[in-house]
């Protein structure tokens, strides 16, 4: 008989069940760059054919992509982002923001984003829709929402060892560590615990119903990657607390973007399982994802990018959009 694990119902977990594996994240990244066709993903990602077919099928089944016939005879299909899929744009932006802030030392190239509405080079920001202040992990609190409860965890948790497409095309856009965190479900769940304020090994083990060796492995990985730090507990000798570093805390906008998407598209009739409040204004957090220069909301068709190489001026002006609702190819370098 199979036993099932039950975990706290949560929109991030639901979102990651759909998009939270390495290949799906890369497929979606390319969708936002305008890729629509099977052979183009295959070429860019060097992904095994069957795996690509599986992931596309799953993304279509979950209504993130839709399969559209673009030639009648012989029939040819392409995959376009649905409204639900396009709504993941803020997740992509928050991932890119975090990668650019924290992984710059390893890079020779990075991406500059431009906001066509104000015409300036900008950084995307997650702000409170009520008071406008930037959303910071330590300034939010959460309460159970109408959809709170426990639900069955997915039967299979992805293993770390699943083939890694490192070195895929466009590695500079957004993969690397954020994808590593999101693509390994246990890693994400451990960092999720830290955002919920759970700091102790035993408390995490209970919260996640996770095996001791897996928890120890993910904690040490997150410490090595600089998202958590291990500190002796003040109240008990020989016990440690795992707390978020600045880099770890700054991952919060990625979580907020995923939660917002999950609440919007996956919460069902019951409503959101968890509600965040913004402490500076005391109101329920309704996040906005905006340009740090003009404060305007960021929409895919109004954001363009330029690839910048170290020791050089930005490559060519007038770069195209990262994506448009119709997914115009705009990948230039
Ligand atoms: Zn506020
Ligand atoms: Zn702007």
Layout of strands and helices, then pairs:
Elements: E1 6-8, H1 11-19, H2 22-32, H3 38-45, H4 49-61, E2 65-71, E3 76-81, H5 83-86, H6 89-102, E4 109-115, E5 120-122, E6 124-128, E7 140-144, E8 150-152, H7 177-183, H8 185-195, H9 201-208, H10 212-224, E9 228-232, E10 240-244, H11 246-249, H12 252-266, E11 274-278, E12 283-284, E13 287-291, E14 303-309
The chain binds zinc ion (ZN) (2 copies).
Residues 128, 130-131, 133, 278, 280-281, 283 line the site of one zinc ion (ZN).
In short:
With 333 residues, the chain is of the alpha+beta class. 35% of the residues lie in helices and 20% in strands.
List keywords for this structure.
14 strands, globular, three-stranded antiparallel beta sheet, 35% helix, Arc Repressor Mutant, subunit A, alpha+beta, 333 residues, binds zinc ion
Order of helices and strands: EHHHHEEHHEEEEEHHHHEEHHEEEE
Ligand roster: zinc ion
Spell out the CATH superfamily of the domain at 6-199 and 218-227 and 245-252. Winged helix-like DNA-binding domain superfamily/Winged helix DNA-binding domain
Distance between the termini: 54 Å
Q: How does CATH name the architecture of the domain at 6-199 and 218-227 and 245-252?
A: Orthogonal Bundle
Strand order of the largest sheet: 5-4-14
Characterize the biggest β-sheet. Answer: 3 strands, antiparallel
**What is the helix tally?**
12
CA-atom Rg in angstroms? 20 Å
Structural class: alpha+beta
Q: Give the CATH class of the domain at 6-199 and 218-227 and 245-252.
A: Mainly Alpha
What spatial form do the alpha-carbon principal axes imply? globular
CATH topology of the domain at 6-199 and 218-227 and 245-252: Arc Repressor Mutant, subunit A
**Rounded average pLDDT:** 84
State which percent range the strand residues make up: 15-25%
- What is the total tally of β strands? 14
Fraction of residues in helix: 25-40%
Low-confidence stretches: 158-174, 313-333
